[in-house]
């Protein structure tokens, strides 16, 4: 299976454009609180996406994974995943594929700071109003 994944062909720009609905579906799942599903939906596209877009998609996957950890009450990994997501998505500000990436990065930083402030002993007291909302407009895709 791992060998088959490594041999998947990378999408052309036109092929990527044709599959952007997967990105938007993953974002909608994330915004609806379906973090695991969001991660899974976007992972299939991420594996065949060329650079540099691949990095943006991976950042969104890492954001979703951080909140999968939170939902499972597993503190280890939340800060590391949020840090990685912030680093990757920051490279695409202020906007990419119609996603308000600058706003997303700011909201990820707020969530990350709250988790860090709470620490492992109290992270379940996280203010869930700080879960990032990924704002996007499909009409603004920059392909």
Topology:
Layout lengths: L1 H5 L6 H6 L1 H12 L3 H12 L6 H19 L6 H13 L10 H22 L21
Helix pairs in contact: 3-4, 4-5, 5-6, 6-7
Number of separate domains: 1
Share of helix, binned: 55-70%
The major pleated sheet works out as: none
CATH superfamily: TTHA0068-like
> How are helices and strands ordered from N to C?
HHHHHHH
CATH topology: the name is Hyaluronidase domain-like
Stretches where pLDDT is under 50 for at least 5 consecutive residues are none
The CATH class is identified as Mainly Alpha
CATH architecture: Orthogonal Bundle
The chain-level mean pLDDT equals: 93
Q: End-to-end distance, in Å? A: 31 Å
- Work out the strand percent: under 5%
Shape: globular
Helix tally? 7
Question: Nearest-angstrom radius of gyration?
Answer: 15 Å
Counted beta strands: 0
Textual characterization of the structure:
The chain is an all-alpha fold and 143 residues long. It has one domain: TTHA0068-like (Hyaluronidase domain-like), CATH 1.10.3450. It has seven helices and no strands. The termini are far apart.
Features:
143 residues, single chain, mainly alpha, Hyaluronidase domain-like
Task: Tell me briefly what this model is.
The protein has 143 residues and is mainly α. It has helices at residues 2-6, 13-18, 20-31, 35-46, 53-71, 78-90, 101-122.
């Amino acid at each position: 299976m791992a060998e088959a994944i490594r041999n998947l062909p990378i999408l052309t720009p036109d092929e990527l454009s044709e599959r952007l609905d997967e990105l938007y579906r993953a974002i909608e799942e994330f915004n609806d609180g379906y973090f695991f599903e969001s991660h899974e939906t976007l992972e299939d596209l991420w594996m065949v996406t060329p650079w540099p877009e691949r990095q943006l998609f991976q950042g969104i996957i890492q954001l979703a994974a951080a909140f999968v950890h939170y939902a499972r009450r597993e503190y280890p990994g939340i800060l590391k995943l949020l840090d990685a997501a912030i680093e990757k998505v920051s490279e695409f500000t202020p906007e990419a594929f119609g996603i308000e990436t600058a706003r997303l990065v700011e909201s990820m930083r707020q969530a990350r700071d709250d988790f860090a402030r709470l620490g492992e002993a109290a992270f379940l007291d996280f203010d869930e109003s700080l879960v990032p909302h990924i704002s996007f407009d499909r009409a603004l895709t920059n392909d």
